[in-house]
């Protein structure tokens, strides 16, 4: 029993006369403590696919992380377009159409012509220049996604024959941190922010952009650390096999 429950019981029991004025607050408190928690969803796995037969646990982990990171970038794109509607009008007749165009370019590894066919960090740098005149939201999301995919060897799905360079993945996380800082601090030629993203002010607070970007950086760091540890443990396991070999020989039984 919590202290609040105990106080309510003590108030109701001590003293002979019943006190309605105190009973109602206690009943409301008890009802609040016993209410059903809000449903925040549950973890659900994907349906089985034949491609998983050629994936190790680490391949599957990297594939899922890449999928979720790209989904997070597309969520960020939608948030940026909503706060910067003048940007999607440079690409399409509607926000939904602009999102679709960028998604196709990212997933099919098509060049984005406003970025002068640049890729990877070169495209990211151009998208964040103060004098960039194209759809900055599309350019930023496309460049960030292309840089991230490049750090994974140019792949979005991984099998037993694929390997990851953990340092490249780690560098991608740092690049996104730098890009996020530039987006929040650098000004366009007219003195305004490059893009309206986070909101901190007396009229409201909106940090959903920052939280979604943080998820991407966290996943990249986890994949980098996990891949490094997997390679390290493989070397240790090989050494353990060499050391334990002489002691693990079968003995004659007749």
Automatic annotation (TrEMBL):
* Highest taxon, organism lineage: Bacteria
Protein's recorded name: Lipoprotein
